Amino acid sequence: MVTLQGDTVYLRALEPDDLDFVYQMENDESIWEVSNTVTPYSRFLIRQYLENAHQDIFQAKQLRLAICKNNNFEAVGLIDIFDFDPINHRAGLGIVIKDTFNRNEGIGSQALSLLIEYAFTQLQLHQLYANITPNNTPSVSLFTNFGFTCTGIKKDWNKKGSGYADEALYQLIKQP
């Protein structure tokens, strides 16, 4: 698919062969904070999720794609459209690159660029948003580089350890 193909990465639908990758991602406690997860997922649940991943975004209200380097089918990360709202023409975006050695190589940047273009062109959305903890400077930098602006801070939004952490709302509104 040309729409989801970049110079060095492409985005593809999840496949049954992605079971181990998605299982590892969902059970990686180091990224639970960004995915609002606090419990592990079984292989059984991941398999069921993958079996239903074929659902249309209008039905499921979300779309999860694997991020792959060109000429390689193996996923290096995941990128999501979530809370898809076709009535108000908006959706949330999320991205995670699994291994630290694949970060800071432009993979996330190119994947986000492809998904923004897809969301505005193919899905005809008017705006996109991302929820980011203010101290997640790599994510703040990634999204602001694409024109997302911080439009608000949700105070004490997420439970973190024995306290609470703020969460910032970043928005990108499609320009005519």
TrEMBL record:
It comes from the Bacteria. CDD domains: NAT_SF. Residues 9-176 form the N-acetyltransferase domain. InterPro entries: Acyl_CoA_acyltransferase (IPR016181), GNAT_dom (IPR000182). SUPFAM superfamilies: Acyl-CoA N-acyltransferases (Nat) (SSF55729). Pfam families: Acetyltransf_3. This is GNAT family N-acetyltransferase. It comes from Flavobacterium litorale.
